[in-house]
Write a structure and sequence with these properties.
heterodimer, A: Fumarate Reductase Iron-sulfur Protein, Chain B, domain 2, Rossmann fold, four-stranded parallel β-sheet, 9 strands, about 55% helix, about 10% strand, globular, B: alpha+beta, Uridine Diphospho-n-acetylenolpyruvylglucosamine Reductase, domain 2, eight-stranded antiparallel β-sheet, binds flavin-adenine dinucleotide, binds iron/sulfur cluster
Chain lengths: ~450, ~450
């Protein structure tokens, strides 16, 4: 992170926070209810690492009582954007979102590194570009360069997607899903409607088989599945890193693209994408073009479990899976989208699957975008607590529905040598249905 | 600016325990009290009692002010460092030293979170009743310093009723351990009773022994709605005169009910004038009998509807409205100012009427909820701190409310403490002579006025 450019320019940037945003900050009554669930307060135990502290700092900067120095900026980047604080705040303050807003103000006013710009402004715009960028990654992983890079932390400067993938990089599958998935998969049986499948970058590149399972399930539920090749990144990495211009362009592209395909719903199997897509209405609100449609688009967005818990009717036969399982709530699912019941409902329908609750469910795993790279120590402390909590359930199948969480939990498996199978919810549901039907194991 | 203070502390305690950056200081300039903040010069995170001692030694050498701080959830400005100096955090002293199931006591360090203490003793079938609304974040040290109450105070009393022994450091660095695990202990002056509620102005607690009781075996929850707040007030008296002390007896007024319904849509009638949430606990037989009598008291005093929870799930559902009260009120306007008066139970209806009048007279939006069982009401003003003129009216309205509470034989603070927020009213409340006695006591322990200055005693200049 480069030094904050010119203090006075940054100060101006904060003095123009509009009334709505400032109002949210003002709304904080400093009750402290958000402290005990904030992962960074839990690990550090100091106010500067709490939502209340972050809101106080932002307010002080906006009021001109504190300068937006490098220290301030660092504090803004300590937040995981897990949104535990949104869930508990009695006054409706969205501390996590305010932090992202602050990052945006900071990033607008300082020079951006070349690699970061390459990623946020170029690579994320096209799945094929991202995949091409990963090609050398695949190669070097095999050639053993990975160990070297990990050791020297070369990619620390790289922001968003790639650096995150690097430190905890799993085996990267040889081909992303976009290369093989048809643009349109017909509904299995009588068509109930059309869903657009939003294929997140990380799912596409790292978990193509899980996303293939998602598409299969959607079709099995009676929907025609439309996966437009021209879709771009949802923009979450840009928002996380304070970038809003390219974000807006990508979001508008996605809105036009999916609405043009006349789909009834837009489903995604990535919790972070789901939250971002649902926020288009809000984030594009200020832009001229498309802002009207962004709201309509966001209304159509569903998380895969949210959608399937209704779409897979009681007539759908789930096959037995003898399995001790638990569901790890991705922050962007439970706190940002308020979804906790649907994935559990679905898993409980699998005969033989024993679902137990993770103590302190809803606590972040420490993945949080690129956090596990940029703040490795903190991330590891948070992860250790999560590993212990999951350990208490005795579960073998650790189910989740966000690529960041899956990566982090797989990394935990390696690091803490746990005996888990880390698995996307679509994979396990498909396994169950396929078992019953004997056919559908492959597409 | 005395830079050396932070450096001296660092030398003694290590860098990681001393926080002095701009952000660190800003983040310890406030607690949950609206409209007040002050920057400390430096913040220290103590994690042992030796750390506390070391800080006091340094402070004594430097003549520095020291303000103890728990989680900063206080509502009277208790941990705001009015005169700068050192903020001393005791949130790092977090050991639960001993849960004595044979002698029904628990010994903890002051940084233990109240709800964590509950969980630890309840795991052994024991019960620590004080349950302030902030218990998920408040520390036991803060609870003892503020003598905090809670929803169960009517039957079980408040924090002070459970404190058996305290290790306390005074500002000169000396330490007193007073009290035993014995319920009966009359050796000399009762220093424990005295130290409870001193709001961090007399000493700093480093070890606390609390009395426990067996966990009640069952409970019953009842929710009653009224068309008339007087009828709710009469019900409270009727329950007490039936010789029943419920564990919880909470009241919400019409504004609060409407806000809760607006926010949470849980099916409360928006035109209801008052709501009572009542719970009785204990032996299942007794609970059944008391539950029936409470229900009867509600009906006989004009309740519009009465719901009795059949099981734990329904009981939790009935608690929803009360749990949501603050959240619902806090969302209406940017600034929420919550007050804390207490009046004798029979005076509740008159007090409620006076609150309403004051709100009307000064054109303010005010919702009241509180612990009716002990006469403790929280008139809560929904306002905007940027509107200075309205804030003036808020102050004027509260002024009238405090005067009325005192006139009715009540008090200006039931559980949040005097701190900086109420010091202005203390002389009116207890009389100048009592304030003078308090000041003399304070002078004995802290002649230079270095420990948590600016609290309880009003500063001359305003
Ligand atoms: C939403 C909300 C609801 C609340 N509900 C209730 C309620 O129902 N009942 C109630 O009584 N209060 C309530 N409170 C007020 C507050 O939570 C209590 O006063 C609580 O005890 C404060 O604990 P704390 O750890 O946050 O202390 P702080 O606010 O940090 O400090 C409070 C005081 O204690 C002193 N102190 C802290 N630690 C020590 C120590 N180790 N030794 C000596 N002094 C110390 C400080 O100097 C200060 O004067 C509520 C507050 C909020 C925000
Ligand atoms: S819970 Fe909400 S109102 Fe309370 S301190 Fe945190 S952000 Fe502020
Ligand atoms: S988003 Fe998460 S890490 Fe950030 S302040 Fe809120 S609870 Fe803490």
């Amino acid at each position: 992170m480069g030094a904050a450019q010119d203090l006075s320019i940054l100060k101006d940037a904060f003095s123009t926070l509009d009334v709505r945003e400032y109002g949210d900050v003002l709304q904080c009554m400093r009750c402290g209810f958000c402290l005990p669930t904030c992962p960074t307060y839990r690990t550090d135990g100091v106010e500067t690492q709490s939502p209340r502290g972050r809101v106080a700092m932002i307010k002080a900067v906006v009021d001109g009582r504190m300068d937006p120095t490098e220290e301030f900026s660092e504090h803004m980047y300590h937040c995981l954007d897990c949104r535990n604080c949104h869930t508990v705040c009695p006054a409706g303050v969205k501390a996590g979102e305010r932090v992202l807003e602050a990052r945006h103000r900071i990033e607008e006013h300082r020079p951006q590194g070349v690699v970061k710009r390459l990623l946020l402004e170029y690579a994320v715009r096209d799945q094929r570009r991202l995949s091409r960028l990963l090609a050398p990654a695949r190669l070097y992983q095999r050639a053993g360069v990975q160990a070297l890079v990990r050791k020297y932390d070369l990619l620390k400067a790289v922001s968003a997607g790639l650096s995150h993938l690097e430190a905890i990089m799993p085996e990267i599958p040889p081909r992303p899903l976009t290369e093989s998935i048809p643009e349109e998969i017909p509904a299995d049986g009588k068509e109930k409607g059309r869903v657009g499948f939003f294929l997140g970058c990380a799912m596409n590149l790292l978990y193509p088989e899980a996303s293939r399972a998602t598409a299969w399930l959607l079709s099995r539920a009676g929907y025609t599945v439309v996966t437009p090749k021209a879709q771009q990144c949802c923009g979450a990495p840009n928002i996380e890193e304070g970038e809003r211009r390219v974000y807006g362009e990508m979001a508008e592209n996605n809105v036009d693209l999916f609405l043009g395909k006349r789909v009834d719903f837009v489903v995604t199997d990535c919790a972070a994408c789901g939250n971002e897509l649902k926020s288009y209405g809000k984030h594009l609100g200020g832009r001229k073009r498309n802002s009207r449609y962004a709201g309509a688009f966001s209304e159509k967005v569903r998380d895969v479990s949210e959608f399937l818990s209704r779409a897979l009717g009681p007539e759908v036969p789930f096959g037995p899976l003898e399995e001790d399982a638990c569901f790890h709530d991705p922050c962007h699912l439970c706190h940002a989208q308020g979804i906790t019941t649907p994935p559990r409902e679905l898993l409980r329908r699998v005969p033989g699957l024993r679902l137990s609750e993770v103590p302190d469910a809803g606590q972040c795993c420490g993945s949080a975008g690129v956090y596990n790279i940029t703040h490795a120590d903190r991330s590891m402390k948070i992860l250790a607590a999560k590993v212990e909590a999951i350990g208490k359930t005795g579960a073998h199948a650790v189910v989740s529905s966000n690529p960041g969480c899956l990566l982090q939990l797989e990394y935990a498996k390696r690091r803490f040598r746990t005996d888990w199978e880390v698995v996307h919810i679509s994979t396990i549901l498909r396994r169950s249905l396929a078992r019953r039907e004997d056919k559908g194991g492959s597409e | 600016m005395t830079v050396p203070l932070a450096r001296k502390l660092e030398e003694l305690l290590g860098k990681e325990k001393v926080l002095s950056s701009e952000a660190d200081r800003l983040c310890h300039s406030y607690d949950a009290t609206p409209l007040v903040s002050h920057l400390p010069e430096v913040v220290v995170r103590a994690s042992t009692e030796e750390d506390v001692h070391a800080v006091l030694e340094v402070a004594a050498g430097e003549g520095a002010k020291v303000t103890p701080r728990g989680s900063g959830s206080g509502l009277s400005g208790g941990s705001v460092p009015v005169d700068g100096g050192i903020v001393l955090l005791t949130t790092g002293l977090i050991r639960i030293l001993d849960v004595d199931a044979d002698d029904l006591s628990v010994t903890v360090e002051p940084g233990v979170i109240t709800a964590d203490l509950h969980a630890a003793v309840e795991a052994k079938g024991l019960f620590y009743p004080p349950d302030p609304g902030s218990m998920k974040i408040s520390t036991i040290g803060g609870n003892v310093a503020e003598n905090s109450g809670g929803l169960r105070a009517m039957k079980y009393g408040i924090t002070g009723d459970y404190v058996l022994a305290l290790d306390t450091y005074f500002v000169d660095g000396s330490k007193v351990r007073y009290g035993t695990k014995c319920v009966k202990d009359v050796a000399g002056y009762n220093l424990t009773k005295f130290l409870v509620g001193t709001e961090g102005t007399i000493g700093i607690f480093t070890k606390i022994t609390l009395k426990l009781v067996p966990k009640p075996r069952s409970k019953k929850t009842i929710l009653a709605l009224y068309d008339d707040i007087l009828a709710a007030g009469r019900t409270v008296s009727a329950i007490v005169s039936r010789k029943i002390i419920p564990s919880t007896l909470e009241l919400m007024d019409d504004v609060t009910i409407a806000c809760v319904e607006e926010y949470a849509k849980i099916g409360l009638p928006r035109d209801a004038a008052a709501l009572l949430l009542i719970e009785t606990d204990g032996h299942p037989e007794v609970v059944r009998e008391e539950g029936a009598k409470i229900e009867e008291a509600c009906r006989e005093n004009g309740a519009r509807t009465v719901r009795v929870a059949r099981d734990a799930a329904e009981s939790a559902e009935l608690f929803t409205a009360r749990r949501m009260a603050l959240a619902a009120l806090a969302r209406v306007k940017p600034t929420t100012i919550l007050e804390d008066i207490t009046v004798p139970r029979p005076a509740i209806p008159e007090m409620m009427a006076a609150i309403r009048e004051a709100a009307k007279k000064y054109s303010l939006r005010m919702g009241t909820f509180g612990h009716a069982g002990d006469g403790n009401l929280h008139p809560t003003c929904l306002t905007d701190e940027r509107d200075k003129e309205e804030i003036h009216r808020v102050e004027a309205a509260y002024d009238e409310i405090f005067r009325k509470a005192i006139a009715l034989g009540g008090t200006i603070s039931g559980e949040h403490g005097t701190g900086m927020a109420k010091s202005k009213y203390l002389p009116m409340m207890v009389g100048p002579k009592a304030v003078e006695v308090m000041a003399r006591i304070k002078g004995v322990f802290d002649p230079q006025g270095r420990l948590n200055p600016g609290k309880i005693f009003r500063k001359e200049a305003h």
